[in-house]
C-alpha cells in the first residue's frame, strides 16, 4: 500500500497497551460512537475510490457495528433488511460464484490425496523397471523417491507461500502451483531412471506444499464467517476423496502391460487440470486485494460472492477495520519476527505446542505407512498385485466415508476428546494387524483376512479422530497476526515427518520385519496419546477470545488440572458410564476496563509464567 494511502487512512482507536499475543477480538466499531463510525466510513469511501457507494457503506457499517441486532438499524432499506434476515436464517445460502469457488478449493484438496496414492500403486512395479527392487541401498532409494514430495513440501513449499502470495495473489499462486501439479505427474510417467523420477517429484513436492498452505486460506477468505469452520473440515474430507480417487485410478489402469505404474503416477494430473482451468473464473480474495490497497476491486469481488450489496459492503468494511487492528497489534513486526513469536510469546508458544503435537501425531500414528505402502504391504504378505490394489481401494473408501461423520462430531464431542478416545484403539488395531502377520499356516483368507480387518478398523478410528482434527485444530489456535506463520510451521512439521516416514519404512520392514514395523508405530500411538493429553487443549464451542484465555494458562497448571480434574471425569463418564457433569475448561482471566465503557471484560492473561 502506498505511503500516501497510509497517511489518509481513517483513524480507528486501538488499545495500544494490549500485547499482540492477546488477540482480543471485540468489535472495534463498538468502541467508538455512531457519529464517529459514520465519519470514518465517509473518509474510507472517499480515500478508496468508493465515493459513489458512501450511503451503502454507511448503512453497512452500522450493521457491522452490531451484526446480531441489525434489525434495530433504522437506516436500512426494506430490501436490505430482508437480505440480512435471509442470510441469518439460511446458513448455507450463497450465490453461485461463492459455491463455485469453494468447490474448486475442494478440488485443490483432492490433488493432495491423489498425488500421494499414485505412488502407492506404482510401488508395485517401478522398482523393477529401474533395477532397485533389492534390499539395503535399493530400499533407501525407493523410500527417498516416495518421500521427497513431502520433504520438499514441508521444508520449501510451505515457506515460499508468503512471497508467492504477495506478488501473484491467491489466484495467481494457486494457478502456478496447479500448473506444477499438472505437469509433474505427467513428467513422472515419462521418466526412464529413478534419478529423473526423484527430480520430478522434488518439484512436485514444492507445488504441493505451496498449494496446501494457500488453498485453505483462499477458501476461508471467500467463505462467510457462519460456515468458515465447516469448510476447514471439508479440506480433510476432500483430501480423503482424493486418496480414494487415486486408488480407484490405480485399479483402473492395473491391466495395462508394462506402463501401469506410469499411468498410476500420471493420473494425478486430472484434478490439477480442473484446478488450473477453474481458478481463472474465481474472484480474487477480497482480503488480499484490500491488503494491497485495492479496496474498490475488493468490493467488486465481494459483490460476486455475497448475495446482496449490503452484505458485501458490511463484510468489506469490518474486514478493513479488523485489518487495521492486526496492523496495530503486529506493531510493524516482520514475517520472521512473527514466526519467532510462535516460540517466544507464552500464549502463542502453547498454541504451537498443541498444533505441532496434532500434526506430529498424524505421522506418529502410522496412517501414512498404509497410505504410502499399502499395496506393497498386502502384496508382500501373500496377495497378488491385483488383490493388493483392491484391498488398498477399500482402505481409501473407508477413510473417505468415515471422515464424513467427523464433520459433525468435531463440534459436539470436541477435538481433544476425539483424539484421546481413538488413539488407544488405533494402538490396539495396529498392533493386532502386525501380530496377525505371524500366522503363516492356513488358507490365504485365514492368514490375510485378519490383517486387512485390523488395518480397516485402524483406518476407521483414524478417520473419526486424528485425521480431520490435525488441520482443523492448527488453523484455529493461533492469533490472527501469527496465523500464517503458525500454520506454515505446523504444515512443515506434518509434511517433513511424512517424508521421514516414507523414507524409512521400506528399510524398516526389512530390519524390524513387517510385524516389528507395525509394532513400532503402534507404540508411537501411545506416546502420541500422552503428548495430546499434555499439550492439546480443547477448543470446541469456544470463541476466539476464549481460545486466547485457554492458551494463557501455564502448561504446568494445565497438566495438573487435566490430571486431577479432567481425567477423573473422563474415566467416570466414558469408562464407568456415569452421568457426571463435564468440568468447565481451565481459563485464566484478568479484568480490565474498556476505555469507552464502564463494564469490565474477561481477557487472556499473557504474562510469561514459569512452565514445567
UniProtKB/TrEMBL annotation:
Coiled-coil segments on the chain, per record: none
Origin organism lineage: Eukaryota, Fungi, Dikarya, Basidiomycota, Agaricomycotina
Domain spans labelled Major facilitator superfamily (MFS) profile: 101-540
Stored NCBIfam families: SP
Keywords, comma-separated and alphabetical: Membrane, Sugar transport, Transmembrane, Transmembrane helix, Transport
The protein's name in its UniProt record: Facilitated glucose transporter
Subcellular location: Membrane
Species of origin: Favolaschia claudopus
Reactions it catalyzes: myo-inositol(out) + H(+)(out) = myo-inositol(in) + H(+)(in)
Primary localization: membrane
This protein's GO CC annotations: membrane
Membrane topology classification: Multi-pass membrane protein
